[in-house]
Amino acid sequence: MWEVWSVKCSMWEVWSVKCSMWEVWSVKCRMWEVWSVKCRMWEVWSEGTEEVSYDAVTPDSGVQDNFNALSPDEQDKLREEWKAELIKTEEEIQTLRQVLGAKVKTAQDIKRRLGITVWREFTDDFNSSMKTVRESQPVQKANEVITEITEAVSNAPLYRRMSGAFSDVGEAISQQPV
């Protein structure tokens, strides 16, 4: 009995090491995802910071005809209005970024006081994602197909004969004196 319990404990240790390796791997994957999202955000942000010439209006934009119909003074005035609007919009974006940063910091502080760790958040997110995957239509369909295949194989006459023969061989081997 002790040996069986010892083997089960060894199997548990191996399983827990595999789970720990999985956890480390999944954290690394999550870090990669966060990094790639940040890179994507930087790309989007940096694309928007390029200076655009207002003279580069394409013919299919519908603005060129109206804009070119204006006098040069009106065009300059309109450009100045657009520049002022752009500056105001960029200032609003910066203010929103600052407010969002402050809100994120406040949320992190509240979570820390509540004892919600990053690891716990990650675990909860992972568990909810896995639940969603398990309940998804493709996974349900795959489980049904696997169940049907298993039933078909186990009900096949060849499988029954072979499993019976293997059982007999296993019993014969286990009854042999060592």
Sheet having the most strands: none
Principal-axes shape call: elongated
Structural class: mainly alpha
Q: Please give the count of helices.
A: 6
Account of the protein in words:
The protein is mostly helical and 178 residues long. 85% of the residues lie in helices and 0% in strands. It is built from six helices and no strands.
Concise summary:
This protein is mainly alpha-helical and 178 residues long. The protein is built from six helices and no strands.
Features of the shown structure:
178 residues; mainly alpha; 6 helices; Tumor protein D52; coiled coil; TPD52
Task: List the topology elements.
Blueprint (H helix, E strand, L loop, with lengths): L1 H47 L14 H6 L3 H43 L3 H18 L1 H19 L1 H19 L3
